[in-house]
Amino acid sequence: MHNVQLLVDQTEQEIVQSDRKLSYNKDLVVNLSHEKEEREVHLQEEEQQIDKLTQILKTIEMSVCVCVCVRLLNTCTVYTRLQAGASICFMIF
Question: How far apart are CA 82 and CA 76, in angstroms?
């Protein structure tokens, strides 16, 4: 009879331990799910920020390109004026 009681006690302890592990794992799953949701939100925000910065960079690059084109156009205009207005001096230089 003593052995049977020991077996019952051991089984009860195993059940209690298993229940604790199960509870711990359930809590862990809930916590990880919340963390995953938070990280997904953060990831979306970061992706939106990257998109905004990409658009800003494209705008800056276009502005630089436009500035270079305007400078070239102005240079051509000045060159043409010099050639037309002072052709002798222009040819010397």
Answer: 10
b/e per residue 24-40 (b: at least 16 CB within 10 A): eeeeeeeeeeeeeeeee
Decide if pLDDT at 59 tops 70: yes
The domain ranges of the chain are 2-92
Listing DSSP states for the chain in one string gives -HHHHHHHHHHHHHHHHHHHHHHHHHHHHHHHHHHHHHHHHHHHHHHHHHHHHHHHHHHHHHHHHHHHHHHHHHHHHHHHHHHHH-HHHHHH-
Q: Measure the CA–CA gap between 15 and 64, rounded to whole angstroms.
A: 72
pTM score above 0.70: no
Tokens of 69: 């084109």
Q: Which amino acid is at 33?
A: S
